[in-house]
Design brief:
2 domains; globular; mainly alpha; 13 helices; Rhopdopsin 7-helix transmembrane proteins
Length: 366
Amino acid sequence: MHLGNGHFEKNCPFSEVPLALAVITTGISLILSFLGILGNILVILSVALDPNKNLRTPFNWLIVNLAAADLITGTITDPISVSIHFKLCLGKKNTDAEQAVYNMSYFISCTASALSITSLAVERYLAVRKPATYRNQMTIKRIVFTVAVIWLISLSLPSIYFEVGYILYSFVFVNASLVLAISITCFTYLLMWRKIKGRSHKTIANHNKSIASLSSTEREKSSTPLNDPTVSNSVVTSTNKMEEKVTKMFLVVLIAMFCCYGPATLFIYLINFCESCSCVALHWFLDLALISILINSSLNFFCYAMQSSRFRSAFIQILKIKRKIHQHHETVSRSVNISKDNCARSTTDTREDVQMEEMFEKLDAS
């Protein structure tokens, strides 16, 4: 068995792609393109505009970098995938140039996305491990350096594709990017969870120790008994809520990675090692691996940004701004039309416009 020179490259490159597979891939790519563009533009605008003045943090700049990588997937890779597979639906052949642009955009954007997820995991671990020195160490220069390294690797590594071909490089890609990203993310999240758990126990222990160290006189002077179960329960509840919130975010990210990168890794290994698989099966494996990785690029928006109340608030503010601009244009358009009508109708329509604007303002306020 020879990696990358097996059954597929010998017999299947020019075999016909199943029509059902081409249709399914076209439809899914179209949906993913829409989701990827909308969600990632919102993320980038939220941090760039920062309507609530609370999003420009090192972690969120790394999220912007992730959104930029996923936006490339949504604006370039997904639309080209739609075009290529739609041609296959019609029985047409794609040119080598089209296929090369498609493969390179796919490898570059998805490598950047996987490495960005890894950088987010490492950044969160550093924030939890050394919170006192984190802000001084995690400077803008370090963020820029991290982003530069991510894109340097993402732009240079896929150049191997031109030397070894799609099948063999897909094996390099899945091991250098996907497996590495999953391993580092799982390891750092495990360390982070242990650190948070240990810190929570330490907080509760320090609270109980401070109660025990107080003299009886100090306890009597206290307006609220420090050994009151409600006080201790509030400390436990707050720490438990923090643990649950962080654990929930970790689980969502890890589940998304395993559900997308896991099957993709399996399919790419089958493509490279399964010599008994038919060409039809290998074509399905190719597209399923592609779709699994592209789905992750669309899910990152929900895994990171939508879990943050700050991002959700920023989304609402941005959508309100767009809505008010749209309402303003509608009002101007109505006023031009009203001026052409008679005075009585103008008065009535103007009153209706004012009432409608008041209604929208009430809806916005609510």
